[in-house]
């Protein structure tokens, strides 16, 4: 029987055990990249921390953490065919709890209820890509970013264009109407022609069907579109990733209550340690097989 979405649902509950215990839902091993030769370029893994800076674990013990996430945002958190909650954020929760040495629960709630549940102390941390703006900064805090959400151009595979303001002058660029990506293109690529579409599907289809030269949008979503059936194998990334934080946000972060700085310090420490030790890099390769940076 499925419980109310406001409660801890049975198929969305995962107990992530601390090191040495027996996890109820053990993680599958991350795939290992096979090099074509001894000199092959290793797979890309994003790292947002200085590998030479290894701070000590914060003082004080954290024994339990109640994480909350949504369950409808693949590849971050979603239900598989058996109704089991899986995804990047689920595996990240497991890694953080192992690093901290805490026993954790992961609650699945509707995205729109996560902040209220955190403020009402029905959970300790939200791991679901919540953007904490100016209106929430006085009540909520966030960890360092563990992933960023850049913008990327995609173009036809046989079109060797240069994705710069000069290289796209006179070209047609598809974007989603009213999006930050449209605003970015309009301000940074003044000599290009902009074709605004009502949604991502139609904007991407315009490129696939050769009605525009390039499409500009969210790099994460585009990485899966490029490898999916909808693209018909038409295209690839063009140019570098655009990372301007004032346009594309400050990245994906874990949200905690302002009144819980000790938890934030432990989570920041665990994120940094897992990143420098390579564990976050393995999660990136597991859930994002096409590098989107």
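^ Assign residues to that structure.
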């Amino acid at each position: 029987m499925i419980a109310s979405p406001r409660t801890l649902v049975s198929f969305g509950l995962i107990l992530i055990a601390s090191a040495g215990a027996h996890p109820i839902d053990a993680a599958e091993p991350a795939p290992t990249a096979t090099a074509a030769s001894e000199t092959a370029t290793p797979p890309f893994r994003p790292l947002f921390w200085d590998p030479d800076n290894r701070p000590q674990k914060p003082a004080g013990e954290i024994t339990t953490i109640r994480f909350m996430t949504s369950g409808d945002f693949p590849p971050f958190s979603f239900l598989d065919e058996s109704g089991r909650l899986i995804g990047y954020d689920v595996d990240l929760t497991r890694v953080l709890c192992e690093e901290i040495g805490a026993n954790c629960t992961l609650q699945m709630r509707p995205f729109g209820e996560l902040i209220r549940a955190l403020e009402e102390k029905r959970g300790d941390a939200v791991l679901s890509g919540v953007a904490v703006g100016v209106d929430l900064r006085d009540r909520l805090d966030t960890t360092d970013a563990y992933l960023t959400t850049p913008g990327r151009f995609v173009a036809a595979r046989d079109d060797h264009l240069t994705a710069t303001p000069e290289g796209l002058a006179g070209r047609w660029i598809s974007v989603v109407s009213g999006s930050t990506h449209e605003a970015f293109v309009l301000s940074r690529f003044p000599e290009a022609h902009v074709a605004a579409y009502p949604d991502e599907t139609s904007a991407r289809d315009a490129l696939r069907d050769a009605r525009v030269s390039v499409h500009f949008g969210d790099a994460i979503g585009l990485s899966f579109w490029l490898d999916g059936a909808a693209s018909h194998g038409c295209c690839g990334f063009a140019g570098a990733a655009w990372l301007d934080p004032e346009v594309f946000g400050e990245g994906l972060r874990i949200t905690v209550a302002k009144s819980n700085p000790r938890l934030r310090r432990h989570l920041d420490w665990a994120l940094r340690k897992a990143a420098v030790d390579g564990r976050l890099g393995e999660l990136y390769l597991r859930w994002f097989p096409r590098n989107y940076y």
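The helical segments are 88-100, 114-119, 180-188, 200-208, 219-227, 245-248, 261-276, 279-287.
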